[in-house]
Amino acid sequence: MPYVIAAPCIDVMDKSCVEECPVDCIYEGERKLYINPKECIDCGACEPACPVEAISQDRRTAPEHTDFVEDNRRFFVEVLPGRDAPLGAPGGANKTGRIGVDTSMVAGRP
After folding, report:
1. Which of 11, 82, 90, 102 has its CB 3.0 to 4.6 Å from that of 107, i.e. a possible disulfide?
2. Which among 83, 82, 108 has a CA at the least distance from the CA of 10?
3. Neighbours of 7 (CB within 10 A)
4. What is the distance between the alpha carbons of residues 72 and 90, in angstroms, rounded to a whole number?
5. pLDDT tens string 33-92
6. Across-strand partners of 25?
7. Contact 32/8 with Cβ under 8 angstroms?
8. How many angstroms separate the CA atoms of 47 and 55, rounded?
9. pTM of the model
10. With helix as H, strand as E and coil as C, how does the chain read?
């Protein structure tokens, strides 16, 4: 997974990163955005666009946010609440629109 979005995005979701992403791989949950690891081309355009510095490469994630590397992956490979199947790699966030749910880790945060 090249880039991940961590805790600073929760309840902020500025979406400046979405506008910069050339492959439309940033999906919208309820409280946070998620980068699809199968669709991300590791270009880094999203990282400087984030006003809360929530985005980093998976291998450069701050120690306090390392759980978000796996959590970002779970958003796409596990069945999220209210859905019948994993999101997978649908080929762009514009195709799916707002997903509107989060992983249990994000949903359970205060």
Report:
1. 102
2. 108
3. 19
4. 16
5. 999 999 999 999 999 999 999 999 999 999 999 999 999 999 999 999 999 999 999 999
6. none
7. no
8. 5
9. 0.95
10. CCEEECHHHCCCCCCHHHHHCCCCCEEECCCCEEECCCCCCCCCCHHHHCCCCCEEEHHHCCHHHCHHHHHHHHHHHCCCCCCCCCCCCCCCHHHHCCCCCCCHHHHCCC
Instruction: Kindly indicate the confidence band of residue 2, based on its pLDDT and cuts at 50, 70 and 90.
Output: confident
pLDDT at 59: 92
Is the C-alpha dihedral spanning 10, 12, 13, 14 positive or negative? negative
φ/ψ of 8, rounded to 5, equals -60, -20
Q: Cα separation of 73 and 95, whole Å?
A: 19
User: What b/e sequence results for 11-38 when a residue is b if at least 16 CB atoms lie within 10 Å of its CB, and e otherwise?
Assistant: eebeeebbebbeeebbbbbbebbbbbbe
